[in-house]
Hints:
Blueprint: H1 20-23, E1 29-36, E2 41-47, E3 58-60, E4 67-69, H2 87-92, H3 97-118
InterPro entries: RbpA_sf (IPR038638), RNApol-bd_RbpA (IPR025182)
Protein name: RNA polymerase-binding protein RbpA
Function: Binds to RNA polymerase (RNAP), stimulating transcription from principal, but not alternative sigma factor promoters.
Amino acid sequence: xxxxxxxxxxxxxxxxxxxxxxxxxxxxxxxxxxxxxxxxxxxxxxxxxxxxxxxxxxxxxxxxxxxxxxxxxxxxxxxxxxxxxxxxxxxxxxxxxxxxxxxxxxxxxxxxxxxxxxx
Length: 119
């Protein structure tokens, strides 16, 4: 005869005296709707005793990945991504030789000051 375990026949393993109310499933909650730019509604639940300043005004919509706000008529706008820059565009943005020398001189001066005070 096999023996082992302390579970009573027919009982669920892990079942105990704790019910759903002990897990917090029946805590007082408030539902807040968020809308994204595509019109998708997302409902989030927060504890009823949570202060208004701790409830976020903008979240990320799980259905679209866009920002979603609490105002249905004026949802947050879709962020515009900058197009990919070519190497030539970066070359055009480079600093002049005089600016580069000035930056290098400032950086070297700051390093020398730090070494002089800590050494």
